[in-house]
Amino acid sequence: MIPAMPVSASASRRVSSAVLRFGRRAVTGTVAVLVLVAGVWASWGAAQHVMLPKGRERGTVEVTRCGAGSCTGPYTPVSAGSRPRGRVVVEDTVAVAEGRTYPVVVKPGSDDVVRSGTAGVLYAWVPLGGALLLASVLVAGGLRLTRAAWVLAGAGLALLTAAFVAV
């Protein structure tokens, strides 16, 4: 039988340091991916109606009244098969102002609408822009991948800036 060789203290420290480094990277990478998935999930609720309008009712809404987080106004159809409505509801955001008319898509089975067109698409993806910025901090700090972090931050900043300009 061959006797077991004793492990030196420095070798033990190197192994534990490597394990801790791997654990930090795994946890930080997982959190960064979860932040990005949450950004897509939060954006998709409105983006699906704007980006996939085929078969949905499209038209315009003239905002007549705003309050309590939503604005209302009459809906004028543009697409075939869409019917006029006396009152539809659109979220009250910085993207909607009283007295203006906006192109919209009606959410199926309701009187809720979301903005359409370029401004609507960009505005729907704003949560993803914020998630990209947050993930860039995680990637830079926790994973030490500065180039990837700059790409994520640049994409998030570009998306948020484009949405601000379009709205």
Q: How would you sum up this structure, described in words?
A:
The chain has 167 residues and is of the alpha+beta class. The protein has helices spanning 9-51, 117-124, 126-142, 146-166; strands at residues 58-62, 65-67, 70-77, 85-91, 101-106, 113-115.
Brief synopsis:
The chain has 167 residues and is α+β, with helices and mostly antiparallel strands. The protein has helices at 9-51, 117-124, 126-142, 146-166; strands at residues 58-62, 65-67, 70-77, 85-91, 101-106, 113-115.
Average predicted local confidence, pLDDT:
90
> Can you tell me the residue ranges where pLDDT is under 50 for at least 5 consecutive residues?
none
Q: What string gives the helices and strands in order?
A: HEEEEEEHHH
Strand proportion: 15-25%
Radius of gyration: 25 Å
* Oligomer description: single chain
Major sheet size, sense and barrel closure: 6 strands, antiparallel
The number of helical runs is 4
The portion of residues assigned to helices is 40-55%
Number of strands: 6
Distance between the termini: 77 Å
Bulk shape: elongated
Decide which structural class fits the backbone.
alpha+beta
